[in-house]
Design goal:
8-stranded mixed β-sheet, Rossmann fold, 10 strands, 275 residues, globular, two-stranded antiparallel sheet, alpha/beta
């Protein structure tokens, strides 16, 4: 399968397939490769766009810019504009889920549907307290600190090979990026505005997730009108990797339902109408 890689602003973006845009945003210190098992599954029907956030993976990491939730939301908007995307289905993991919420609230006309994976409406779960993360970066270095989080992020069924893959990916994020991003994530709070998210929304979490525990996803689902909650068995913080078939089935079912709810009004563009 052909995957086109391009640099847009401070992001590296990987694009495959054709059709309606399906945009994936990864989490804290992770990379676009955490969505690798969704590429083939969805590229036959969608234009799959995996955004590698600035400072993560092989994306640029200039020291003069911001690595906060609002800045990352602006990076997504820049990608939309560069790729001529009017609106898209936006999928966010963990920190990427917080970025996706911010984007959906700031640019509702740009989001056709929203998928929040291992996400919260406020900060992270108690196991990844921001003070503990910053202390670990200071004492152990950012690579070891990030890899220690990875060790706790997977469920019991995850293979050692998968864990080692993830540890290599997170080792690419420098300390100054990680520190600013985790502080911004900790400060983010969408709880009072969840009711303003008016697009079809899917909330997904692994039943063994201790980074963003399932209770956080319940809060998201209860706060977003009409949203759907799916708990993936035998998965931790990365259900799209740990149980990719189950995750892809849930996502495909949601996208099928969205397609049945979206109606096109001739000459008036896209109209979101629940049926």
């Amino acid at each position: 399968m052909h995957i086109e890689t391009m640099e847009i602003g401070d992001t590296i973006v990987r694009v495959s397939g054709a059709g309606s845009p399906l945009v994936f945003v990864h989490g804290f210190t992770t990379t676009a490769e955490f969505w690798r098992d969704q590429v083939e599954a969805f590229s036959s029907r969608y234009r799959v766009i995996r955004i590698n956030l600035p400072g993560h993976g092989d994306s640029p990491r200039p020291e003069g810019r911001s690595y906060t939730i609002p800045a990352f939301a602006n990076d997504i908007l820049e990608v939309y504009r560069a790729l001529d995307i009017d609106d898209a289905i936006l999928v966010g993991l963990s920190l990427g889920g917080t970025v996706a919420q911010s984007f959906a609230l700031s640019h509702p006309e740009r989001v056709r549907a929203l998928v929040l994976v291992g996400a919260t409406p406020h900060g992270l779960g108690e196991d990844v307290n921001v003070d503990n993360v910053l202390k670990a970066i200071d004492e152990l270095g950012v690579v070891q600190a990030s890899q220690n989080v990875i060790e706790r992020s997977f469920g019991g069924a995850a293979s050692r090979e998968l864990v080692e893959f993830a540890k290599l990916e997170v080792a690419q994020t420098p300390a100054f990026v990680a520190r600013e991003a985790i502080a911004s994530l900790n400060a983010s709070d969408s709880r009072a505005r969840l009711r303003d998210i008016g697009v079809p929304t899917l909330v997904v979490v692994g039943n063994e997730d201790i980074i963003t525990p399932p209770g956080e996803s319940v809060i998201l689902s209860e706060g977003i009108p009409g949203s759907r909650l799916e708990i993936i068995p035998d998965a931790g913080h990365f259900p799209m990797l740990e149980q990719s078939q189950a995750f892809n089935h849930v996502l495909k079912d949601f996208l099928d339902a969205c397609d049945s709810r979206l109606s096109y009004v001739g000459g008036e563009g896209l109209s979101r109408q629940a049926v």
